[in-house]
Amino acid sequence: MIQGSIVALVTPMMENGSIDKDSLKKLIEFHIDQGTDSIVAVGTTGESATLDEDEHCDFIKSVVDYAGGRIPIIAGTGANSTTEAIELTKRAKEVGADACLLVTPYYNKPTQEGLYLHFKVVAEAVDIPQILYNVPGRTACDMLPETVARLSVIDNIVGIKEASGKLERVKRLRDLCGEKFALYTGDDATSCEFCLLGGNGTITVTGNVAPRLVHEMITAAIDGDRETALAIDAKLTGLHKQLFIQSNPIPVKWALKEMGLIRKGIRLPLTWLTEDCYDVVRGAMRQAELL
Question: What NCBIfam families does the database record attribute to this sequence (predicted)?
Answer without folding.
Answer: dapA
